[in-house]
Design brief:
alpha/beta, 4-stranded parallel sheet
Length: 121
């Protein structure tokens, strides 16, 4: 059974994102976590209210994961996306998916599950 590593909305992906490096022996960036734990499944928290940010977040996560997985000679890894019921409507989700597919086709193919995209009243 795969375990998913949560990539929070504020979690640093690269060194440039780290404002204060914690020297507690644990990773600080997504790339470091992938290497440290041998991650192959990532759950990406998204905003659901800022399309450009959501797309860019997935593209950046995929870029970091691609670089680290290449170093590890890993060819398969997967994403779960979690919008926390924040997408305004299905149109938002469809536009998000189209943009991700255009910007990172391989990253799009890694998406296995989309959790709670919209809220139903």
């Amino acid at each position: 059974m795969p375990l998913y590593h949560l990539v929070g909305a504020l979690d640093p992906l690269e060194d440039a994102d780290v404002t204060t490096r914690l020297n507690d022996g644990l990773p600080n960036t997504l790339g470091e976590w992938i290497h440290y734990n041998g991650l192959t499944h990532l759950k990406i928290k998204l905003n659901g209210e800022d399309l450009a940010w959501d797309v860019e977040r997935v593209v950046r996560v995929d870029k970091v994961a691609q670089a680290e997985q290449t170093k590890r000679s890993v060819s398969k890894w997967y994403y779960s996306l979690d919008f926390n019921e924040k997408c305004q409507n299905v149109g938002y989700l469809l536009e998000f998916l189209q943009r991700v597919k255009t910007l990172t086709p391989a990253g799009f193919e890694r998406i296995q599950y989309i959790e709670q995209p919209t809220h139903r009243d």
